[in-house]
Amino acid sequence: MSYNCPVCGFEKLTFEPYDEKGLASYQICPCCGFEFGCDDFPEKEEAFEKWRLKWIEDGCVWFSRNPPPLDWDGNEQVKKFQNR
């Protein structure tokens, strides 16, 4: 099973960013680099928006040292995510 990043829309997170109690996974999104439980302080939704805008401004660059999925395109991912 995979999960979606609430910041950038990446659809292949290994763990759910937050559990049913709202506790963070401390996973780092390999796509945008957001760490759930660290970068979301003090207000989650505001942090998501700021991080997303900065990531887009910087060109939607893949964060992880590991290569992105073969079919990954940051700009297309953003378009799809924003059209939800």
What does this structure look like?
- The chain is mainly α and 84 residues long.
- The two termini are 21 Å apart.
- The radius of gyration is 12 Å and the shape is globular.
- It has 2 helices and no strands.
pLDDT averaged residue by residue: 94
Residue stretches low in confidence (pLDDT < 50, at least 5 long) are: none
Q: Tell the overall outline.
A: globular
Which range best describes the helical content: under 10%, 10-25%, 25-40%, 40-55%, 55-70% or over 70%? 25-40%
Count all strands and give the number.
0
Order of SSEs: HH
Radius of gyration: 12 Å
* Helix/strand structural class: mainly alpha
Please work out how many helical segments DSSP would assign: 2
Q: In percent, how much strand structure appears in the residues? A: under 5%
Q: Largest beta sheet, briefly?
A: none
Q: How far apart are the first and last residues' alpha carbons, in Å?
A: 21 Å
How is this fold's topology laid out?
Elements: H1 44-57, H2 74-82
Give a nutshell description of this structure.
This protein is an all-alpha fold and 84 residues long.
Q: What are the key terms here?
A:
about 80 residues; mainly alpha; about 25% helix
